[in-house]
Amino acid sequence: MSSVKIMSFGRLKEILGPDFEIESENTDELLSQLTEKFPQLKDLKVRIAVNQKIISENKALQNNDVVALMPPYSGG
Question: CA-CA distance, 33 to 26, in Å (whole number)?
Fold first, then answer.
């Protein structure tokens, strides 16, 4: 398991609170852990960035990775 830092923004910050660390092997497992701990996440779409790169598929996590959770956004 890897220890990663979780950062959140917008509505997700209201749910998750201040930044914290968690142990997880990959982003799918991480989302599962967070949804179990914070059931409000279940109905929200979440964008994930690992070390400042937005991902769209499961990604293995390494020690000291920074995972940012962001609400959906639209551009213009």
Answer: 11
Single pTM value for the model: 0.91
- Cα separation, 33 vs 39, in Å, equals 10
**Taking 70 as the threshold, does the pLDDT of residue 68 lie above it?**
yes
Sequence-distant (≥ 6) Cβ neighbours of residue 12 within 8 angstroms:
41, 44, 46, 69, 70, 71
Residue 63 identity (one-letter amino acid): N
Q: What is the per-residue burial (b if ≥16 Cβ within 10 Å, else e) of 31-57?
A: beebeeeeeebeeeeeebebeeeeeee
| Contact predicate 22/30, CB 8 Å | yes
Q: Are 46 and 70 in contact (CB under 8 A)?
A: yes
Distance, in Å, from the CA atom of 16 to the CA atom of 75, rounded to the nearest integer, reads: 25
